[in-house]
Design a protein that fits this description.
The complex is a heterodimer of chains A (389) and B (614).
Chain A lengths: L18 E2 L17 E2 L5 H8 L5 E6 L5 H7 L2 E4 L19 E6 L2 H11 L12 H8 L9 E5 L9 H16 L3 E5 L4 H19 L25 H7 L2 H14 L5 H21 L20 E5 L8 H5 L3 H5 L6 H6 L3 E7 L11 E8 L4 H14 L1
Parallel strand pairs in A: 6-7, 6-8
Antiparallel strand pairs in A: 1-2, 3-5, 4-5, 4-9, 8-10, 9-10
Helix pairs in contact in A: 1-2, 6-8, 6-9
Chain B lengths: L6 H7 L7 H9 L1 H4 L26 H19 L7 H10 E12 L41 H10 L3 E2 L2 E2 L2 E4 L9 E4 L6 E8 L15 E12 L3 E5 L3 E5 L6 E7 L6 H17 L12 E11 L9 E3 L2 E4 L3 E6 L2 H20 L8 E3 L8 E4 L10 E2 L6 E2 L2 H9 L5 H10 L7 H9 L4 H16 L4 H23 L11 H12 L5 H12 L6 H8 L8 H14 L1 H9 L6 H11 L7 H11 L9
Parallel strand pairs in B: 14-15
Antiparallel strand pairs in B: 1-10, 1-11, 2-6, 3-18, 4-5, 4-17, 6-7, 7-10, 8-9, 11-14, 12-13, 15-16
The chains are: A alpha+beta (389), B alpha+beta (614).
Enzyme class (chain B): ligase
Subcellular location (chain B): Mitochondrion
Catalytic activity (chain B): L-glutamyl-tRNA(Gln) + L-glutamine + ATP + H2O = L-glutaminyl-tRNA(Gln) + L-glutamate + ADP + phosphate + H(+)
């Protein structure tokens, strides 16, 4: 796991990076066999690898900006992020309270659904846990899945999209169409700004949530004297105890909340977040039950969206280990919008089609997103996609 | 990232009182912590290079006051020959410079539980025995807003005439300090729950003669907000500081006034009045002396001539102000006044010598002559206020506000104005406020009873009726008060109807004032007889002398003291008539001779003009 959930390749850990070893090379051995070690994705890469290597039946992770869906895509397992507020966060070490969601990883959708059924309950210990009254309002809307409208978000067709991923995307869409569903292109114009907004909001909340780690009441502290008249009492402890990526995000977050910058960064990012959510509401047929106002279903409007989980397939670990952090952040471009809007989203592995020799036998993650509260629909469509491909 | 093994333990613990040693024990044995196994010390310690903070909450208050008084006496003796600023100079400076003060008061609310956890609030319990996981910022813990804490806060805001906001929200104010476990304080920066109130200071609120204005002074209240308190730090010399987290997240209200105060005494009286107001509505029980109420003041000066310089500051609509400094943590009303005076003088001195006042944070200790600098502009903290994403906005219904407003106890200002203005009472405002402050209101209730009895007795005599309120006030406050001295009040010592009877007799001129006092003291000492009975037994009724009796008595006296008569008549020393009056009174039964008629008779006999013509 990336330290404090901050990272896209599970490399920021004092225990070392999580590695995805090539298959069929005698089981491990790495570089010596001439195979390629790949990134597990992050930040819940450890959980994904544990599931992928069948060390466990299912695993939990936390998805703040894609940290469950991305490693699921890179390791070829199913990763599900439910609607924000359904699964209790009591006990989860907070990274960004308004984005953190407990997610489930499993080798197939049925296992993931089983775990979800058990955990999907109101917890009074978590102040952001969805109250029973709202849960029953959401449950009252069930959609029959005989012929759904599948949305194709054209804004996700970016130039840096790997051709293998693009081909797999098209193949998945065709497969669903063959099952009787209809395809509709849709526009989500704020997608291009969502990633920047996420990387302002999440570090800002992180700089606040991580202020408590000072070694005074729990945890370890740096040896010797800490604190000088010029600095705060626990500066040395924090410097030693928090890794470089964590420090980077805390500083970024503190800057975006500072008096000079808050209007241009934090406040603007929150406004973009609202626009991202409104984009989704405009595109979906089902209304957003959390928004006061229109509760009538729209005539136009799709039931779910289908898009890739990541713009690339799992990269080589050595490429990403020394990568510029901004490039690492780019991995989250497709997962972040659903996080900002709190929507249910799942990544299922789809075999890579086409004659790209390097990608043969491997899978890319396909992401299904639905309106807030339509978790069952997401799981249902996921099952259909897995069956169809 | 789930601390799953502790989950059930945490769930169970959250229903019990918050003593977490058992959970800590269990946590130490878990594999999660075995990698870095701490030594089993009972106290966690941190080494630091920093100087210890100035000792401001450990030496006993009494000792501080004594030391301060001693220091002052020494200095007065030393400087008695050459006062630095003579009174004339000081008055000249004050007529040139106008002081402006704004006050921020933090008061601990009277609630059962803390603001964001179910741990109980406490005052002086065993350290770290009322601490929930969230209070100590345990990872994975979340805030739970305790709605009942809002009730005393709402009462306080209503007593300060504020508008209660329908929607308010909580924000995080970030700064690092060892008494702030989460690294931020949860407060209401962007949307406080109450705004735009006011407090009025009447002349009777000021100490005698110290009221700067002639009429009441109204000071605006910008807002009232709820926030968390911090941990208590106990300094153990030479270099150990112990942290007690019982106080963390105790609900506080912060009351921010507008900078509309222009005199140090006004500021001190304002703080005192806010404190008594909060106690009157039962929002706050611990006062300043217990550390339950703290004041910070913002002080600036400007020239009265009204030239607005380019650098003039403004605050929430009040414009043209000078640069202000903040004085933090004033722990008594006297400290408020002294600190403001010292800071005002410092700023005036600085500006008159061509300097510039910097926006600093300063501190004050009892017995100092000037404030001292704690933090300059470069050390100013950017609090990075961020709305707390875990806490839902607070919605306060109109029905709750209306109910609280209707059930608010009658505030002292309203009572005083009733006692002063109402024809039934007609007390002076000084007497009224004294009456209110005695014996937790029991003296006032007793007074009302006495007045009621008197009003029944004199229902058909409007002339006397008009005097009953004032007479009762005098007897309840002065006469009864002087008998009580240091004893505790008890309304049964002299039951209200008995006192009413005494007063009625005086008002009807059936007994003299002196007799009445005697009666009161007799009853006070425990005589069980009714007042009428005592009067009858002791034959206290005033039998006014008839004119003939006056004449006879006067005549006999004049004959006896013929030489005195000669002095008066021949030497025109008319004032010596009074001596005869005194003699007449001395020779008669007590109270039977009234000085007025006696003198009149004597003058008549001596052929002197009546007293008022001389």
């Amino acid at each position: 796991m990336d330290e404090f959930g901050m990272g896209s390749h599970n490399t920021h850990s004092c225990f070392g990076p999580t590695k995805v070893m090539p298959r069929g090379g005698g089981g491990g051995g790495g570089e010596a066999e001439g195979g390629e070690i790949r990134s597990a994705g992050g930040s819940s890469g450890g959980s994904a690898v544990a599931v992928a290597t069948e060390q466990c039946w299912a695993a939990l992770g936390t998805d703040t900006g894609g940290s469950v869906r991305l490693p699921a895509a890179y390791t070829g397992v199913v990763g599900f992020k439910p609607s924000y507020g359904l699964l209790s966060r009591w006990g989860v070490i907070a990274y960004a309270n308004s984005l953190d969601t407990v997610g489930i990883l499993g080798s197939d959708v049925e296992r993931v659904e089983g775990v979800f059924d058990t955990l999907d309950t109101y917890d009074p210990q978590d102040p952001t846990s969805l109250p029973p009254s709202t849960r029953s309002r959401l449950a009252s809307r069930t959609k029959t899945s005989s012929s759904l409208k599948i949305g194709i978000p054209l804004d996700y067709s970016i130039s840096s999209l790997d051709p293998a991923v693009r081909t797999t995307w098209l193949h998945s869409l065709a497969a669903l169409q063959a099952r009787g569903h209809t395809l509709h292109p849709v526009r989500l114009p704020t997608t291009q700004h969502a990633l920047s907004a996420y990387y302002v909001i999440a570090p800002a909340e992180a700089s606040s949530n991580l202020a408590k780690y000072d070694g005074v009441r729990y945890g370890s502290r740096a040896a010797g004297v800490d604190g000088t008249p010029e600095s705060v009492l626990f500066a040395k402890t924090r410097d030693h105890g928090l890794g470089p990526e964590v420090q980077r995000r805390i500083l970024l977050g503190a800057f975006s909340l500072s008096a000079q910058a808050i209007d241009n960064y934090f406040i603007q990012a929150q406004k973009v977040r609202r626009l991202v959510q409104q984009d989704f509401d405009r595109v979906f047929a089902a209304p957003n039950r959390l928004v006061v106002g229109e509760q009538e279903p729209a005539d136009e409007g799709v039931d779910v969206l289908l898009c890739p989980t990541a713009p690339v397939i799992a990269p080589l670990l050595e490429e990403v280990e020394n990568q510029d952090p901004i490039h690492a952040y780019m991995n989250d471009v497709f997962t972040v919008p659903a996080s900002l809007a709190g929507l249910p989203a799942i990544s299922v592995p789809a075999s890579i089609q086409g004659d790209d020799a390097g990608a043969a036998g491997r899978s890319a993650g396909m992401q299904i997103i639905a309106q807030y509260g339509d978790d069952r629909l997401v799981l249902d469509v996921a099952k259909q996609l897995v069956e169809a491909t | 990232m789930l601390v799953s093994t502790c989950r059930t333990a945490l769930a169970v613990l959250s229903r019990r009182p918050y003593i977490c040693q058992s959970c800590l024990q269990r946590a130490r044995q878990l594999p999660l912590t075995s990698a870095v196994r701490p030594k089993p010390t009972s106290a966690r310690a941190l080494q630091s290079d920093t100087k210890p903070p100035p000792p401001n909450d450990d030496t006993p208050f009494r000792k501080l006051l004594k030391d301060a008084a001693k220091k002052k006496r020494k200095e007065d003796r030393a400087s008695s020959g050459s006062p630095k600023v003579s009174h004339c100079d000081r008055d000249a400076r004050l007529s040139k410079w106008e002081l402006t003060v704004g006050i921020e008061i933090h008061a601990e609310l009277n609630t059962a539980r803390k603001l964001f956890s179910q741990a109980a609030t406490s005052v002086n319990e065993e350290p770290n025995s009322h601490v929930a996981l969230f209070d100590v910022a345990f990872p994975g813990s979340q805030p739970h807003f305790q709605g009942e804490t809002l009730i005393p806060a709402l009462r306080a805001a209503l007593a300060l005439n504020c508008d209660i906001q329908y929607k308010s929200s909580f924000d995080r104010k970030h700064y690092f300090y060892q008494d702030q476990p989460a690294g931020y304080q949860i407060t209401q920066y962007y949307e406080p729950f109450a705004r735009d109130g006011s407090i009025t200071l009447y002349p009777h609120d000021f100490p005698a003669g110290a009221s700067p204005a002639n009429g009441p002074v109204t000071i605006g209240i910008k807002q009232v907000q709820m926030e968390q308190d911090t941990a208590k730090t106990v300094h153990q010399p030479p270099s150990t500081h112990l942290l007690d987290f019982n106080r963390v997240s105790h609900p506080l209200i912060e009351i921010i006034t507008l900078p509309q105060i222009h005199h140090p005494t006004t500021a001190a009286v304002c703080v005192r009045k806010i404190q008594s107001l909060l106690k009157a509505v039962n929002s706050v029980t611990a006062g300043m002396e217990m550390g339950g109420l703290r004041a910070d003041v913002n002080v600036s000066v400007r020239e009265r001539s009204g030239q607005s310089t380019e650098q003039s500051q403004s605050y929430h609509g009040v414009t043209g102000l000078g640069q202000r400094t903040e004085i933090k943590n004033l722990a008594s009303v006297k400290a408020v006044e002294d600190a403001i005076i010292a800071e005002r003088d410092r700023q005036i001195e600085l500006l008159e010598n061509g300097g510039v006042v910097e926006g600093e944070t300063r501190g004050w200790t009892l017995g100092s002559k000037t404030t001292r600098r704690l933090r300059g502009k470069e050390g100013e903290i950017d609090y990075r206020y961020m709305p707390d994403p875990d806490i839902a906005p607070v919605i306060v219904g109109r029905d709750l506000v209306d109910h609280l407003r209707d059930t608010l106890p009658i505030l002292s200002d309203d009572r005083v104005s009733t006692l002063v203005d109402d024809k039934d009472y007609k007390l002076t405002s000084k007497d009224a406020s004294t009456l209110l402050s005695l014996d937790d209101g029991e003296r006032l209730d007793y007074y009302y009873d006495v007045v009621k009895h008197l009003q029944t007795a004199f229902a058909d005599q409007p002339a006397i009726l008009a005097r009953t309120g004032k007479a009762a006030g005098n007897w309840v406050l002065m006469e009864l008060g002087s008998l009580l001295k240091t004893e505790d009040w008890s309304e049964t010592r002299v039951p209200s109807d008995q006192l009413a009877s005494i007063i009625a007799h005086v008002l009807r001129k059936q007994i003299t004032g002196r007799t009445a006092k005697l009666l009161l003291s007799t009853k006070f000492k425990g005589d069980a007889r009714a007042v009428e009975q005592i009067i009858a037994d002791e034959d206290m009724l005033l039998r006014p002398l008839s004119r003939q009796e006056y004449l006879d008595l006067a005549q006999s006296l004049l004959e006896e003291k013929a030489d005195m008569v000669k002095v008066i008549v021949e030497k025109q020393q008319h004032k010596k008539v009074k001596w005869f009056v005194g003699q007449m009174m001395a020779r008669s039964a007590e109270g039977t001779v009234e000085p007025g008629p006696a003198e009149a008779v004597l003058r008549e006999l001596l052929h002197l003009p009546p007293a008022d013509e001389q």
